[in-house]
Amino acid sequence: xxxxxxxxxxxxxxxxxxxxxxxxxxxxxxxxxxxxxxxxxxxxxxxxxxxxxxxxxxxxxxxxxxxxxxxxxxxxxxxxxxxxxxxxxxxxxxxxxxxxxxxxxxxxxxxxxxxxxxxxxxxxxxxxxxxxxxxxxxxxxxxxxxxxxxxxxxxxxxxxxxxxxxxxxxxxxxxxxxxxxxxxxxxxxxxxxxxxxxxxxxxxxxxxxxxxxxxxxxxx
Length: 220
What we know:
Blueprint: H1 11-38, H2 54-80, H3 88-110, H4 122-152, H5 162-180, H6 182-219
Helix pairs in contact: 1-2, 1-6, 2-3, 2-6, 3-4, 4-5, 5-6
């Protein structure tokens, strides 16, 4: 009888743990979006921190920046898993997606500086433009990475299409929702986070299934 001891340095262990982090921060991110859509406004609608006070907005933005780092970990785990494949499109998409998510992380922190501003100030205008540019570039990179995953065929079933769905969601429906209303935007972002949760779940379980298949092969 052979005893298999899981090595903490095993790449599969790192991928699974990164997937678990991605899963949970994405679920919490989805809940945060629903909360912001439902909470009673504490400030006027034309204040940048709407619907929260400056203090609550600051805490929320710090949380979002931490949460985005968890999503970066999920994107890194997707690459480590080999699901992206070796093609140039996948490499471009992966590096662009990581850079875009880090850019979004920094923008979330920068938004705190305008918490007291009204939405028609120059600073808010710059922040809004930055959010838009970073989001579009991130979405394009995610689509490229998602296409690479679908082509590589390492993942099968619904998992094969999750990375592409994450990228497509940025353009439809998220960007139109961002322009429509605050509430629509929050629900669209929450839906995006649920797709990241699906990615985290796939990463958390794909390596376990691969390990089980390997053990079964060794026992034959």
